[in-house]
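thought: fold this chain, then report.
action: predict
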Amino acid sequence: MRTLVLLHILSAFIGLGPTYFTAILLRRSQTPAALRHNLALSETMSFFPKIGGTLAVLSGLALIWRGHYGPVTQLWLLGSLALYALIQIVIIGYAVPRTGRLAAWVGSPAGSEVGTLPGEQAAVLSQLQRAHLLVGALGAGLLVLMILKPH
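observation:
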C-alpha cells in the first residue's frame, strides 16, 4: 500500500510540474524565435503530464479500491476528480488547439520574418498563458485536497 501511495504522489507531482513551467515558457513578451523554441520545449514536456496524470488517476483509483478511504461520494474525492476533469478540459479543449495554431504560425515563413508577435498571435499567447496559470491553480487545489483529505 505504501508503494502505491508513493507512486500516486510522485506521478501527481511529475504530471502537474510541467504545467507551472509551461506558464513561464509562454510568457507574453517574447520574439517569435524564442516562442518557437519555447513551444518546442513545451511539447517535449507534455510527455510528463500524459504519463504522470494517467498514473496518478490509475493509482488513485487503486488506492480507493484497496484502501480504507470510505465511500467514493466524499466531497474531497469528488472535488479532486472534478478538478482533474477541469484541468483536462482546459488543456485538451482550450490550450491544445490554440497551441497548435500558434506553433503553425511561428513555424511558417510569416513567423520567421517578423521580430515581434502580431496582435492576433500575441492575443493567443496571452490566452494560453492564462489557461496554464488557471491549470496551475486548479492543480494546486487538487494537491491541497489530496493532502488535507480526512483520515
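thought: worth noting. The mean pLDDT is 89.
final: C-alpha cells above.
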